[in-house]
Amino acid sequence: MTTTMSRASAAPAKQRPGDRWFSGTALAAGTMILVTLAAVAIFLIVQSVPGLTATSATASVLKTDFWDYVWPLAFGTIWASILALVMAVPLSVAVALFISHYAPRRLAQGLGYVVDLLAAVPSVVFGLWGILVLAPAVQPVYAWLNVNAGWFPLFSGTVSGTGRTIFTAAIVLAVMVVPIITAICREIFLQTPVLHEEAALALGATRWEMVKMAVFPFGRSGIVSASMLGLGRALGETMAVAMVLSVANIVTFRLFTAENPGTIPANIALTFPEAYGTNINVLIATGLILFVVTFAVNAVARWIVSRRKEFSGAN
Amino acid sequence: MSAVSAPPQGPTIVAPARHNRSLTSGHLPRWAPWALLGGTAGLSALLFGVLALASGSDFAIAGWAVVTGVVYLVLITVVSSLVEGRRRGVDRLVTGVVTVAFLIAMIPLVSVAWTVVANGVAGISADFYSQSMRNVVGEGGGALHAIVGTLLITLAAAVISIPIGLFTAIYLIEYGEGKRLARGITFLVDVMTGIPSIVAGLFAYAVFALFFGPGIRLGIMGSVALAVLMIPVVVRSSEEMLRLVPNELREASYALGVPKWLTIVKVVLPTSIAGITTGIMLSISRVIGETAPLLLTAGVTASMNYNLFEGRMMSLPVFAYAQFMNQGIPAQAYVDRAWAAALTLILIVMVLNLVARLIARFFAPKFGR
Predict the structure, then answer these.
(1) Nearest to B261 among A22, A280, A305 (CB)
(2) DSSP assignment of B21-54, as one string?
(3) Fewer CB within 10 Å of terminal CB in chain B, N or C?
């Protein structure tokens, strides 16, 4: 509408200086976003080049070379994120469903705010909570599972005495991504065409069958992209993992031992304040890898969302 | 022909069974699920109470909740399947599961709120809000330097990102409609929302290290890192709000001969200012709790520092982190300070959130009917 207006009036109206100045500022600000993102990439690449080629001779954090250093960290990052998503996605979908279709109408919006509050809690608070409350609380469960189900490879090994294992970190991560996934799923479930739902109910479907037939098919791509946004957040979460996890920098799938793989962001946070020389470049290089991975995950997720224009308000 | 004659046959077959049915037969009464839930809770409470008495330990609330939930879900499914049929049984099971999921999601929120308040109160004192940690070992000291640092750094981040974010949103809505550049910006803003906070910190460090040499720590570096995280949030929320402004308002303004830029400044922005303010406050509440980027850029210090452009600067989240990770003697003093800082931080975030919601509620533009 505005474009047709301006086009119609473009020929006779004179371009006022105020107009030119204002639109120029707006354009500059928009371009600034592109410049910032490009600058993030360029500066990270520039600073990480010395780190990528560093060896144990030039950087003291490396045992052999850069890739040997980053491999356990990359593994730990992905493993913790996957564990977190396995817990968070079903829970978030159920919570979103509860808020959008099951909770009493009058309460629904308030309950949505309550879940959003979870996203407002700073990560350092989750870190404190994870290490001082959650870890001691789940440790007996770990010990019990280790004794009684130790034949299962994931539960094997020597159980951690503190509970500061990768599974605890994954629980904290799950708590942190649940509000994100829930918020998007909720928006999408609410956008299900009401006629579809009513048609299903009119055919005699129960509420669950209505959800299965009308809501889930409509929201499937939304659920996928919400999960990927949650994955992006879980991959990049720093402080909670840095505080909760007790790290040995090894590659293992075991969930309950005291020797866990670290994660890239937590490792940066723990090592960076005391780093010097080429070590800094090595850490920035690991950050670059994290940036590339999260950028790709987020881009794919956003691409899935943007294919469906109805979801434009979903964020 | 046969199709026409078929319907009368249906009722005649069912008819014998019909006369002893009421409308509610084949349905569980409304109170049934609640009664079942109450019964299950009571019985399992009894069970756990006896166990607790027998072993002399405390009443296991977690175990009681888990047993109650599981037993209730099984019972309601079985009872409903027997009375109402399998499909309704599954429906009731899913209703229960979904409700339980919501309750599970509430556990961490309640637990975090409870522990932060319970532990934080111990460290709160007048000293905590009026002293820095300079020359303090062990007990005493406070977080004034961290609070001042947080406020200054966040303020600078807001000063950087609000104009950029707001003008970008104006460009996207008012000038860039349908243009390729605008589509690209929208996409990249969305992707930028997902940048890990630590990467933003590394970026700020990489920029400043290039100009000022390695090892540099400044308050303003933290502001730049936070601005990278804050801009996309401001853009997204402002964009949504500008889009809500009805086109009739713009057209009325143009019809009066008002230039486009004045229309935006005098008509569009005032109409959406409440929503924009809400979005900005929510974005501030998001970045004010960021720890990782500030740990890398603003650093750690025990002294007051009012100058963003010189020297290290403490912030509240980093203070909580540093107090917990570098405990001295007595350790309890450090943990208390960490919890007190966490409580202060959560209070700030919650107040920002609450005020933002209230602004959105009370100052929202009134659109006729």
Answers:
(1) A22
(2) --TTTTS--THHHHHHHHHHHHHHHHHHHHHHHH
(3) C
What ipTM did this prediction achieve? 0.86
Q: Residue A291 sits in a domain of what CATH number?
A: 1.10.3720.10
- CATH topology for B129-362 is MetI-like fold (1.10.3720)
CA distance A220 to A234: 21
Kindly state the tokens that stand for B247: 């086109």
Counts of helices then strands in chain B (DSSP H, E) = 14, 0
Distant-in-sequence, close-in-space partners of A257: CB < 8 Å, separation ≥ 6? A157, A158, A159, A160, A165
**Which chain B residue has its CA at the smallest distance from A137's CA?**
B62
Beta bridge partners of A257: A159
For residue A179, give the H/E element and its range: helix A166-190
Beta bridge partners of B307: none
Instruction: Please give the tally of structural domains in chain A.
Output: 1
* A17 assigned to some structural domain: no
Q: pLDDT tens digits, residue range A122-181?
A: 999 999 999 999 999 899 888 888 888 888 888 888 888 888 899 999 999 999 999 999
Interface test with A, best of B198, B221, B233, B355 (most A CBs within 10 A): B198
* Chain A CB contacts of B193 below 8 Å: 298, 315
Q: Shortest CA distance to B145 belongs to which of B319, B298, B351, B321?
A: B319
Contact A19 B291 (CB under 8 A): no
